[in-house]
Every structure is written in C-alpha cells, then in structure tokens.
Amino acid sequence: MNQEIKNCKNCKKDFTIEVDDFNFYEKIKVPPPTCCPECRQQRRYAWRNERTLYRRNCDLCGKNTVTIYSPNKPYKVYCNSCWWGDGWDFSSYGRDFDFTRPFFEQFSELQHEVPRMALLNKNSVNSEYTNHSGDNKNVYLSFVCFNDENVMHSNWVMKSRDCADCSYIYEKGECLYETVNSRSCYQCQYSLLLKDCSNCYYCYDCRGCNECFMSSNLRNKSYVFKNKQYSREDYLKIMKEYELSSFIIREGLNQEFKNLIEQGAIHRYVVSERSINSFGSLLYDCKNVAQSFDVDGGENDKYVYSGTDLKDCMDIYHAGWMELCYECHACARASNCQFCHLCYDNMNLSYCDTCQNSQNLFGCVSVKKGEYMIFNKRYSKTEYEELREKIIKHMKKTGEYGEFFPPQIAPVYYNETQGNLYMPMTKEEVLARGWQWEDNVPGTFGKETISSASMPDKIEDLPPARAGGAQAGVSDSFLNEIFSCVTCSKNYNISKNELLFYRKEKLPLPRKCPNCRYKRRFNLRPSRKLWHRSCMCELENHGHEGDCQNEFETCYEPGRPEKVYCEQCYNKEVY
C-alpha cells in the first residue's frame, strides 16, 4: 500500500500514514488509525494521573492509603498490599461479552466492578508517596523513580540518591538540586543537559565539566565562570563572593540563567546521540526511531514518548522493555500487546487495564497471572481464540477496534493527568468533548502560618535546632509551619529530610509549592513536537557565506528566542 493522507476524525487535520506504518499495522493485524498522532497521544495522556495524589480507605481492609483516585471516584480501590495479595479473586468478576452492545461501554462497567490498585509502587521502603515507581528507599513525592534513595519532589529519576526537585536524571545522579535532563552528575544545581559533570551551577549543555558556573556549551572544562576560563584560585575566590544560601541572590541567578539559555547558549536543533536514522529529540542509542521523544535504546519505533529499550513499537507512552507493541501506556516488559494501560510483565494482551504477569488476555481488568481470559472470564485456548476473533469483528463494525481507550472511560479525569500539562484545556473544553473533570483536586489555601516575606533569606538564618532527640539538626519550628506558594497560593510544608537537604546543600527555603517547582522544570524542557526551521548561525568561520542555509526538523518552535543551530554549526562552535 502506498502513502496515504487521512483526515483526523478528532481535530479534522490531515495526517500521513507512511508505507512502513501500513506494514506495521498489517503485521499486528490492526486497522490504520483514524486520529492523527497528536490526538492519539492526547488520548494516552488522558489516562495518566502521574502526580495528583489523594487519600482514601482501601475497599478491602479499610486502611487509609495514598492513591491516584479521589474518594468520590466510583471505583473499588485496594491498597497495594491487598491488591497484590490473595484475599480476592479477579476471575470472580468474569462476565460474558454482549454482542448487542459496544465494547467500550461493557469494558467501562467491568472497570467499575474490579478492584484497582491504589497506585503503582513496587518493592519500596518508606516511599509511600510515589507512583509509577519501584525499588526505592526514602523517596518522597516523586514519580517515575526506580532504584533511588533519598529523593524528593522529583520525576523520572533512575539509580540516583540525595536529589531534590530534579527531572529526567539518569545513571547515578547524586546530590543534585533543580537539575534537568542530565546523566552521571554529582553536586550540581539549577542546570540543564549535563553529562559527567560535578560541582556545576547554572550550567547548560555541558559535559565532563567540574567547578563551572553560569556557563553553556562547555566540554571537559574546569573553573569556568560565565564562560570565561579562570585559574582554580581565581575561580574559588570569585565563588566565595556569592552567598548561594540567600534566596535574594538565588532569584537573581535564576533570571540570569534564564537569559543565558534564551540568549547566550547555542541550542542543537535536537538532542540525538549515538543514534542511527532516527529523528525526534532526546534520543539515545536508537536505530530507525521516528517522531519520538525521550527514548533510550529504541529500534524500529515511531511515535514514542518516554520509552526505554523498545523494539518494533508504535504509539507508546511511558513504557520500557517491550517488543511489537502498539498504543500502550505505562507498560513494561511486554511482547505483542496492543491497546493496554498500566500492564507489566505480559504477553499477547489486547485492551487490558492494570493486568500483571499474564498472557493471552482480551478486555481484562486487574488480572494477575491469568491466561486465556476475556472480560476476566477463563476459557480454553480454542474457545478464547474463537471468541476473541468474534469480538474483534464486532468492534470493527462499531468502529472501536484499532482505537485506544477513549478518555470518556478513563478512571482519572483530565485535569488530574499529564494531558493538562502537555495539552491543556479549560474545564468547559474538556466537558464539551464528553470527558471528565475533577473539581475536588487536593490542596488547601489560606491556612499558611507564615508569610513569604517572613521567611528567612538565608538557610543559616533559621531558628536554631533542638540539641537532641529525633529532630536534632533540624529547625523545629519550621517543620510545623505552613507556607503559601508565591505563584499559585497553594499551601505546602517542609519535611524533616527536605530541611536537612537544604541545610546540607546550603539552599534557601523554596517559596513555591512542589507542583509549581515541577512546572518550572517542565517548562525548561523542549517541546515534544517538531517544526521545520532553518539554522540561525551567522558565523563566517563555519563553512558558509552569510547565514547558514541548512534546514531541519527541530523541537524549538519558530519565534522562540533561543539560538538554534544545525548539527554542523553546533559541532564547530561547541567542540
């Protein structure tokens, strides 16, 4: 089949289905999509409540537990111990498929009956307030974190320790604060796109650097201050003049760093390293990966957003270690799975929600170690295969087969999800689509016990700590204070471990709540979209006369202030 241009049934914009796309759809026996890639991704966003947490009682043991489901949601929610335990039988909810009704309508009814896990948090110690995470110790209010210790208020942090307010940290980060998109770094703060760096503050796109400050595009440098090389003695002398424990000083540095990123630094049109025939951004060790973002070790993939070790996959969001999968969200260690949500360690699943360690399931919810099941009902292998084909034929007639779960039946509501960050809509717009909106999102206002103006400028100015006891080394009074975010006015507090971290790293107390700090980091990252642009290089020694004429697809939208260079001009200037 040749390339085909189709009109998205949702946004009414044209989109292209390539020949290789048709080959993939034929291989997994699904019809071509009816929605454009962006609308398909929005459907998956609408199913991901990553960081909006509530407390409600477990519907089995009654224990009060942390969960992503608000108390008013009409679902059975079990705490993790109960959900993974043997005190209930998922097959007891099994039911027959009704060929007189649409699939999604029946699936939604099953979702309302079968217990859901409160959140995904496996094999962790003292890490109750985490989601989409596992194998952690002392991790607090952090999301998509694995094999971490002493991490707070962060997201997508792997194999790291002693970090706070960080995003997308890979490969053993340690003692990091407000650091984004970085690998193998130590003792860095307020930095973006670092690799193999230590003691770097307010730095952008630096590698192999040590003791650098307010600098960009450095390679294997030490003692660089504002992109100027100094001796060790002179650099340390300059740094002594900065009172980094002062909030006022830090606010000025934050604005200076913003100006550096927007006006001083050179931006590579996309970040793609050790990748072959791949386009998108933040791609590492990829081969034949297209229109994808935040991917490590992908091969023959397309439309992947945040993925690790994926092969022959398409339309994937936040997933890893998968092969031959399509239209999946929050899945891991899977093979030949399509249209699945929050499913781990599975094979041959279709249209499943929160199923684990299973194979050959269709339309199931919360199944553990199941096989040959449809709507949570067991069948023989022959019965399963025959009924599965009949249901698929029925779904094709109703126009449902080949489509991911609609947001209308998502167990979380749009303003709780990542969709409201990447593709924000108003309540009126959400409801007009028939999607749902949560009016009772967590948060208190007007209960602050101390004003921002009354907070000490320096961490050293905190009241003295109690001499002994459990709170030794911590300013006791500030553990009981309630603060108000200077951006959204939401109340927040500071935990013991958080305050210890600020003291150790000589950081002023934050004036913003954790969510607003997260949004600041979110806004620093490039878009998950490509635009056609020209290189902005005007330097004569880069092999071109006048302006560079190279064109490319970039994650920097036209009109943004950053200086965006093609690969050749970037390499000549940076390396």
Helix content: 10-25%
Number of helices: 13
Characterize the overall form.
globular
Name the beta content range. 25-35%
The strand count comes to 38
Features:
alpha/beta; 21% helix; single chain; eleven-stranded mixed beta sheet; globular; 575 residues; 13-stranded mixed beta sheet
List the helices and strands and how they pair.
Elements: E1 4-7, E2 14-17, H1 19-28, H2 37-45, E3 54-57, E4 64-67, E5 77-78, H3 80-84, H4 103-113, E6 116-117, E7 121-122, E8 130-131, E9 133-134, E10 137-140, E11 142-146, E12 149-152, E13 155-158, E14 161-164, E15 167-170, E16 174-183, E17 189-195, E18 198-207, E19 210-216, E20 222-225, E21 228-229, H5 232-240, H6 247-264, E22 266-268, E23 272-273, E24 279-284, E25 287-296, E26 299-311, E27 314-323, E28 326-335, E29 338-341, E30 344-353, E31 356-362, E32 371-374, E33 377-378, H7 381-398, H8 419-422, H9 427-432, H10 476-479, E34 483-484, E35 491-492, H11 496-505, H12 514-524, E36 531-534, E37 551-554, E38 563-565, H13 567-574
Parallel strand pairs: 5-6, 7-9, 8-11, 10-12, 11-13, 12-14, 13-15, 14-16, 15-16, 16-17, 17-18, 18-19, 19-20, 22-38, 23-24, 24-25, 25-26, 26-27, 27-28, 28-29, 28-30, 29-30, 30-31, 31-32
Antiparallel strand pairs: 1-2, 3-4, 20-21, 32-33, 34-35, 36-37
